[in-house]
């Protein structure tokens, strides 16, 4: 028996909310995020796809929008995000991706909206950065903000990214990096050489953020 999509998404939304309510979340370098927001500047939060679960609850007073796959799974995720006041623009690297990035760029320029990008999503390769956040930075002058998340007790899904679902009452540490300079300064164009330098830098910074945070990650 197949449950109606609306009922399935409602059940998952309630389950997600229940798990998040039990998590013991600690944030590092949140002050820099809040200071940048207070100045009216925009951020592009960049993280790995498998660590997304625990970032949503800390949006708090920020207006955050993410790109979500147009698939049926994406429908469910969009509903969960909406329940947490996180917006969704539908698209992926293969279906409507450029259109979604342009829509998000327009929102960021017209309103004080921050972006959240899982930089290796929606389908990998795992922990390999794609070009989306740098395109956004160039178009909006927003600042790249690397983020790593350590969830102490997790269930790892048998998916391409080994997606992590924290167990109830797990400790979670969210470590924000340091924001890059303005987008048009750091990403002055979208030439392949510029994108490659940005990809290399972001992957390096995401790795360095995990040192001393995630067991088994060394400098």
Describe this entry's structure for a reader.
The structure is a single chain. The chain has 219 residues and is α/β, with parallel strands linked by helices. It has 7 helices and 9 strands. The protein has helices spanning 5-22, 30-38, 72-83, 97-110, 132-140, 183-186, 192-210, and strands spanning 24-28, 43-47, 64-68, 87-90, 114-118, 143-151, 154-156, 164-166, 171-176. The strands form 2 sheets. A 7-stranded mixed β-sheet has the order 1-9-6-2-5-3-4, with helices on both faces. The chain has a two-stranded antiparallel ribbon with strand order 7-8. It is globular. The mean pLDDT is 89.
Layout of strands and helices, then pairs:
Elements: H1 5-22, E1 24-28, H2 30-38, E2 43-47, E3 64-68, H3 72-83, E4 87-90, H4 97-110, E5 114-118, H5 132-140, E6 143-151, E7 154-156, E8 164-166, E9 171-176, H6 183-186, H7 192-210
Parallel strand pairs: 1-9, 2-5, 2-6, 3-4, 3-5
Antiparallel strand pairs: 6-9, 7-8
Helix pairs in contact: 1-3, 4-5
The proportion of residues forming helix, as a percent range, comes to 25-40%
- Counting DSSP H or I runs of 4 or more residues, the number of helices is 7
* Spatial gap, N to C terminus: 50 Å
Structural class based on helices, strands and sheet pairing:
alpha/beta
Poorly predicted tracts of residues: none
Order of strands across the widest beta sheet?
1-9-6-2-5-3-4
Q: Taking all residues together, what is the mean pLDDT? A: 89
């Amino acid at each position: 028996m197949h449950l109606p999509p609306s009922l399935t998404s409602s059940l998952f939304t309630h389950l997600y909310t229940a798990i998040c309510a039990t998590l013991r979340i600690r944030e590092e370098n949140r002050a820099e995020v809040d200071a940048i927001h207070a100045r009216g500047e925009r951020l592009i939060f960049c993280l790995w796809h498998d660590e997304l679960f625990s970032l949503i609850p800390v949006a708090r007073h920020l207006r955050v929008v993410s790109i979500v796959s147009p698939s049926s799974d994406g429908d469910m995720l969009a509903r969960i995000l909406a329940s947490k006041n996180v917006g969704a623009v539908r698209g992926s690297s293969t279906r409507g991706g450029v259109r979604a990035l342009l829509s998000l760029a327009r929102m960021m320029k017209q309103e004080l909206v921050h972006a959240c990008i899982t930089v290796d999503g929606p389908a990998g390769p795992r922990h390999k950065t794609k070009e989306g956040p740098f395109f956004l930075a160039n178009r909006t002058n927003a600042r790249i903000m690397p983020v790593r998340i350590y969830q102490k007790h997790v269930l790892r899904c048998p998916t391409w990214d080994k997606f992590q679902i924290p167990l109830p009452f797990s400790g979670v540490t969210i470590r924000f990096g340091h924001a890059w300079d303005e987008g048009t300064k750091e990403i002055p164009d979208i030439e392949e050489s510029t994108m490659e330098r940005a990809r290399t830098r972001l992957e390096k910074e995401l790795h360095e953020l995990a040192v001393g945070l995630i067991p088994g990650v060394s400098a």
